[in-house]
Amino acid sequence: MEKVDFNSAGIQLVGDVYGGGEGRRPAVAIIGPMTYQKEQASTQYARRLAEQGFVALAYDSRYRGESGGAPRAWENPAHKVEDLKAAVDYLRSRDDVESDQISILAICQGSSIAFRAAAELAGVKALATIAGHYRDAQGDIEWLGEDGFAARLAQGEAAKAKYEASGDVDYVKASDPVDMNVGMPGGFVFDWYGPWAERGQWENRYAVMSDADLLHYESLSAAKTMTTPWLMIHGDNCFLPSAARRHMEAVPAELSTKTVWDDTPHLAYYDQPDAIDRAMTEVVAWFNA
After folding, report:
1. pLDDT tens, residue by residue, 237-266
2. Average pLDDT, the chain
3. Concatenated DSSP letters for 38-79?
4. Is 2-136+219-288 a domain of CATH 3.40.50.1820?
């Protein structure tokens, strides 16, 4: 593994490159779930891609992990789109990368970011999304409920107005098993993220103003303009399967796509070797094709 840094809108991003070396080879930029840090799911996939002959970049988006940017723990999807574009551009600049053979791999909410980046960035060879959290208003209401959506949006907008006026940032936990007023509520989510926080490897903090950005963001319109060949790995036990179907139905009819739909639980794609290995078989075949 090679520790690297690159620039996105004047902010230093830090990543780990696996599989680099002499000679040019295809490359993959990897973006993880909501509130992710690169050492989590992204690294699981980066290591496996390197074993299959790819240069794989797992990086921290701004405001988290080793990357710069303030305020910390701010989930801003527009900024994540720019960071993913910067990651692709960085890979293009490397001497060990085939510049026309760069793909994107996204896990969970990174999928909605990857959709927009791939739709807006020329020359991405292929896209693969795994257990995607695909964003549209219908899905957000299904996720949070109408009252919950309205409450979180109002709180987020108030927190953002406060930040813009004073520079003060309101925070809640990123995940909690009981408190629903957090970034990612629910026991099954905390069961996965909690140990990372206890080990000091992930910051369990979420800027409340993130909701002002996240709940106005959607990837469905990007799906309608997609020209990058797309592999979707999802299923009824993954998050918001209805939103996944809406995105697949929205892409242009002539787009090259493949859907792998099974009963794998959502979080198994984060760290369970059997689930990741099955996904990687599909991803590697898709990128090579």
Report:
1. 999 999 999 999 999 999 999 999 999 999
2. 97
3. TTTHHHHHHHHHHHTT-EEEEEPPTTSTTS--SSTT---HHH
4. yes
